[in-house]
Write a structure and sequence with these properties.
This protein is α+β, with helices and mostly antiparallel strands. The chain has 15 helices and 8 strands. The longest helix is centred in the middle third of the chain and has 19 residues.
């Protein structure tokens, strides 16, 4: 039997863990699904947790259910959408769904059978041509032009050759819509806002940065009816999180705008903190006085909070309390923030 040394949160010390794989029965939509779940079990106190590197039990059960019923897996749904250069918002509009629904399916939620059939049909070129003819009016001019270009003969190969580091942005941000606070995303603006935030705060981890960005966007939206960055936010267990944050950080680190360092804290936990690159880059764009005032307020109010403290604070916002799990958070919640300038 395999063993490993890990930090046990029950013992609050490093302990030897044994690795066990056991069959488990889970119910999915009224059906019993059998899956093999891998657990870490503390040899000292017996505490156990599933090994998410092998697979979350719910995700394993969903995949087994998909296989049983011939449903698409999340990677296939995303692949069909990307085949036609569609953003989540574009595909949702064509199919009469919400962007949040497509986002959930691509991130592991179990799709409805009828939705699966609608999405699966989009793998056929002639079906997409017909869909564009019948439903193209619901797309913006930009969305329509992208789909028309993708449907041209030979476009698949040209998209493969011309793929850039920015293609994924269309899947998450891109256009001005309700979920992005009615602002079109601009990378240079985001760089300037990000640099200002991490310079004004201490111990900026991924978790903390997501909350700083959330308060920046929602506070600015409350007084200006538009977000500052153009990012959407999802309701996740640790608070509001933008699905664009991680890929954006990787991109900006690659471009030499920021750097990330692993730190070991007094409790022996490790964390990755975010800093401006060295030498520090210049701000790429000038921000307005109103934007700087919001950033100053966010830095002064939340900058010295620990990641866990700011996460707890965000859990008291109606934006998190009243949004279903893994749904996009409406910017209309900005009116009821617990903080304000």
């Amino acid at each position: 039997m395999m063993t490993a040394t890990k930090f046990c949160y029950a013992c609050e010390e490093d302990r030897p863990f044994r690795v066990e794989t056991r069959p488990a029965s889970l119910e999915v939509r009224g059906e019993t699904v059998e899956v093999d779940v891998t657990y870490f079990v503390c040899e000292t106190c017996g505490s156990e947790f599933a090994d998410e590197a092998v697979g979350d039990p719910v995700e394993l059960a969903f995949n087994a259910y998909r296989e049983r019923h011939g449903l698409l897996v999340p990677e296939q749904i995303k692949g069909i959408r990307e085949e036609w250069s569609l953003s989540q918002a574009s595909l949702a509009a064509l199919l009469g769904m919400s962007q949040a629904t497509i986002n959930r399916y691509e991130n592991g939620s179990l799709q409805e059978q009828t939705h699966d059939e609608l999405i699966r049909a989009c793998s056929d070129r002639s079906h997409m041509e017909d869909l564009l003819h019948r439903r193209g009016h619901v797309l913006s001019d930009l969305q329509r032009r992208k789909l028309e270009a993708a449907l041209k003969p030979g476009s698949h190969l040209s998209r493969q050759r011309g793929n850039t580091a920015f293609d994924w942005l269309d899947d998450i941000v891109g256009e001005a819509m309700e979920s992005t606070g009615f602002r079109e995303f601009d990378l240079r603006r985001f760089e300037a806002i990000l640099l200002r935030l991490i310079r004004s705060a201490t111990c900026v981890t991924r978790t903390k940065l997501n909350k700083l960005l959330f308060y920046t966007d929602f506070l600015y939206f409350r007084s200006h009816a538009i977000s500052m960055t153009g990012l959407p936010y999802e309701r996740l267990p640790y608070g509001p999180v933008s699905p664009a944050a991680d890929p954006l950080l990787s991109l900006l680190e690659h471009r030499g705008v920021i750097r990330r360092e692993v730190r070991v804290y007094e409790n022996r936990h490790e964390g990755t903190e975010i800093f401006p690159a060295d030498p520090a880059p210049d701000d790429p764009v000038a921000l307005s006085d109103d934007e700087q005032a919001v950033l100053d307020y966010v830095g002064q109010t939340f900058g010295n909070m620990t990641p866990s403290r700011i996460s707890d604070v965000s859990h008291k916002e109606t934006a998190w309390l009243e949004t279903p799990d893994r749904e996009f958070i409406s910017y209309q919640h900005a009116e009821r923030l617990n903080y304000g300038i």
